Amino acid sequence: MKNSLYIWDSHVLYAAWEETTALHSLYAASILISVDRPAFLYLSDGTSIEFTGVFLPPNRVYREMAKQTHVMNLYIDPDSELFRRIEGMMKGGIQTFDSGKIPNLEELAKKAMLEETTDEEVYEILRYIVETVFGSIFPYKEGRSLDPRVMTVVNHLHSLALIPHPQEIKLEKLAKLVNLSEDRFRHLFKETLFISVRKYILNLRLKAAARNMPKSVNLTEAAHIAGFSDSAHFSRTFRATYGHRPSVVFRSSKRTRIRSIK
């Protein structure tokens, strides 16, 4: 079975045999699950955590080492509906849990790695794990509602056929979409989604590059999709965000199946 990477607009599921990353910082909240045996999480301050399941709030710097085990890694962006299950747990910081408390976990991991598993089935696996971890293993805590003005802008950005370069974005125009001043919009966006508008747009472009990696002729083309004229800069940014060099992802298409899901 191939490793499988499923990419939606606002969340990602990665099911694989083993995983080792460099230090990186994801905008998404991360749920890392080691199925067969414990794995290790290494933080930027030198702290190490042994885990079978661990939750990390957005923008935490870490690297993962999981050997001789299946892994299921879920990345939930704060603009996702599923993030509402998670938001109430944010104040607790990094938290470990026993992945053995997720019923049928081994079967779910293997199913997520099968090519014939449908988009709908994969989404149900994603939702089931999120709702089990944040509802059964961790008692559910009500979080904030997403500000509808911010979500109007998010939906606008997602609707664009071509995501503009972050430096090309006119924040004043985005703010006018929701009748806010530029300063108020900038503050509200970061308060709601834990990221600046420009970094959010960069995240969209990097995700677009990851989606198109299997179809790209080379890394230069993938860099252009992400809005980078310099492939070296693209590689550094990609690695700092995802923990892997894009060249590794590009070369691993025979080992990893990437599926983009709308």
TrEMBL record:
- Keywords of the record: DNA-binding, Transcription, Transcription regulation
Which InterPro entries is this protein grouped with? Answer: Homeodomain-like_sf (IPR009057), HTH_AraC (IPR018060)
Instruction: Note the SUPFAM superfamilies from the entry.
Output: Homeodomain-like (SSF46689)
Q: Which Pfam families match?
A: HTH_18 (PF12833)
Q: Where is the HTH araC/xylS-type domain?
A: 167-252
**PROSITE patterns per record:** HTH_ARAC_FAMILY_2 (PS01124)
List the molecular function annotations (GO) for this entry: DNA-binding transcription factor activity; sequence-specific DNA binding
Against PANTHER family, the record matches this protein to: ARAC-FAMILY TRANSCRIPTIONAL REGULATOR, HTH-TYPE TRANSCRIPTIONAL REGULATOR EXSA
Q: Which named protein is this?
A: AraC family transcriptional regulator
Task: State the organism named in the record.
Answer: Leptospira fluminis
